[in-house]
User: Which sequence fits this backbone?
């Protein structure tokens, strides 16, 4: 989940994972839900999303999934489609996967961010569908003095990335509720998480660092890597001594987190990738490069052990291994593995694209271009712009300028109207490459 948050979080999405046929559009799904008096469960996901691979392999299957599909209208949102992109913006979805439940009356029932183990996902979905997570109900209970409801409302705003709105709502509560709220640990932590969101919106590194430190002092479970990542980023410009003081106290609790919730036979946290990468980031920020490599090699070895040489057995784990090798700068080991991934998953664009991109970035445009050309035959929508960008870079590096211009023209002609922002960036890439 972690690397989905960076830059391209919601730009590229994917075909369906579920076995059942879904409505042709989200508007059609909502109309069907209203007509059949069923809630709509929307799955925002992507073909490059390793968290989505996890859900597809480990959670969205079996009897529990079949039972759930019988109770809801299920729709998989593809962010490469302009209509679904518009819905992502409308619902303020910033994280993949995100599961949003909407009632037959059109009110959001609640949402689940990121992957979950099976034993957590289905109870959470059941709670959403019961209506207990409906914001209007939570607010009503909060106004009556329920601290649990106050925390639930604040958490709901946090899930919707609405820090300002959440704190503004809190200020409307009766004084008798507000004045005792900080004595409740859940409420106090939820407020700090909204303050962290506000600081991030302002790009206020000092505020981010202060709020993240307070949040990290709480019991935040599997969200620890993401909040620590905020702290690491916010302290990047600090003097080394100040940064050391801010980050060093996080090392012991994070190592405990890894030992008890990640590097175990049955990890409590589904998103092992973010946990490992944040550990490596923390070690690097503290200047301990031996520890940085050690945690990456441990993750690499464990991933290989669990895969038993079968990359199709668990795509999430296989893709995690690829990223660990990238981060460890594993060189020849990574080249071999990426070619194996291309062979294992020949029907989508993503591994040809990633390998071709890495070759171009490494100064090998002639070697990278065939992989990018193969990716372009399978890419669609917004993904086509990502592939075309690196095709242009490779072609210009090879002094094949006419072909580069044609690639831009063809991509814009096919997809430009639906993706104006990507069109502009692709055209800028052509100019920059020159």
Assistant:
């Amino acid at each position: 989940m972690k690397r989905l948050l960076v830059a391209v979080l919601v730009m590229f999405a994917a075909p369906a994972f579920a076995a059942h046929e879904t409505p042709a559009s989200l508007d059609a799904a909502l109309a069907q839900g209203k007509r059949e008096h069923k809630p709509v469960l929307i799955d925002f996901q992507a073909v490059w999303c390793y968290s989505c691979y996890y859900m597809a392999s480990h959670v969205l299957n079996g009897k529990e999934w079949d039972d759930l599909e019988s109770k809801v209208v299920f729709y998989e949102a593809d962010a490469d489609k302009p209509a679904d992109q518009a819905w992502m913006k409308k619902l303020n979805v910033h994280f993949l996967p995100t599961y949003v439940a909407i009632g037959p009356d059109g009110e959001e029932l609640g949402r689940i961010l990121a992957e979950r183990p099976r034993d957590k996902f289905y109870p959470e979905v059941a709670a959403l569908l019961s209506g207990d997570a409906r914001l209007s109900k939570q607010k009503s209970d909060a106004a009556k003095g329920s601290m649990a409801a106050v925390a639930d409302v604040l958490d709901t705003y946090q899930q919707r990335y609405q820090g300002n709105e959440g704190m503004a709502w809190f200020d409307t509560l009766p004084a008798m509720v507000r004045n005792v709220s900080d004595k409740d640990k859940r409420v106090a932590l939820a407020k700090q998480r909204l303050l962290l969101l506000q600081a991030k919106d302002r790009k206020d590194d000092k505020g981010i660092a202060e709020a993240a430190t307070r949040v990290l002092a709480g019991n935040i479970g599997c969200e620890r890597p993401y909040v620590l990542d905020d702290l690491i980023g916010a302290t990047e410009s600090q003097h080394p001594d100040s940064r050391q003081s801010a980050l060093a106290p996080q090392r012991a609790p994070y190592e405990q987190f890894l030992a008890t919730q990640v590097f175990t036979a049955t990890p409590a946290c589904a998103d092992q990738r973010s946990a490992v990468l944040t550990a490596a980031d923390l070690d690097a920020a503290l200047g301990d490069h031996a520890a940085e490599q050690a945690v990456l090699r441990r993750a690499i070895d464990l991933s290989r052990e669990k895969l038993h040489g079968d990359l199709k057995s668990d795509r999430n784990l296989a893709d995690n291994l690829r990223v660990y090798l990238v981060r460890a700068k594993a060189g020849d080991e990574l080249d071999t593995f990426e070619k194996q991934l291309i062979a294992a998953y020949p029907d989508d664009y993503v591994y040809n694209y990633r390998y071709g991109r890495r070759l171009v970035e490494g100064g090998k445009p002639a070697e990278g271009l065939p992989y990018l050309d193969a990716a372009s035959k399978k890419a669609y929508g917004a993904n086509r712009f990502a592939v075309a960008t690196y095709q242009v870079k490779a072609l210009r590096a090879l002094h094949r300028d006419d072909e580069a211009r044609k690639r831009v023209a063809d991509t814009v002609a096919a997809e430009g109207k639906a993706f104006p922002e990507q069109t502009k960036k692709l055209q800028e890439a052509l100019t920059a490459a020159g």
About this structure: The longest helix spans residues 289-307.
